[in-house]
Design a protein that fits this description.
133 residues; mainly beta; 10 strands
Length: 133
Amino acid sequence: MAARGNLTTTSQIHVVIEALTGLSTGGTTIYSYQVDMSIDGETWIELKGYTTNDVSLEHIETGLTVSTPYKLRYRAKNIHGWGNYSQVSIIETIMVPSRVSEPNSELIGTNIHFSWSAPDSRGSPILSYTVLI
């Protein structure tokens, strides 16, 4: 299945696929990986690999709608032709959380402790904070 890459943002998805090797290739070289995208799961558009051979294992699609799930599938071509499509996976553009409130600071001994109210995560978990001093 296609996976979400770390370059996925509010307006783009970064699609990462696994290379096919060994028996899954029929023992031959892969000439191209085709990646398709759909919103409804019925109408598919080619992102890469069918019109022009492309063996890269990732693709970035830009100009997308924020917080929207996109369905993706891929397949490979070798000397025998096109293989079957992968299972459909879903990659959603990221919704940016609201801003963090002004932090509070407190001097405790020789340490400064910072705290703040958690922002609205808008449906996606907040995995970390970056504190710049």
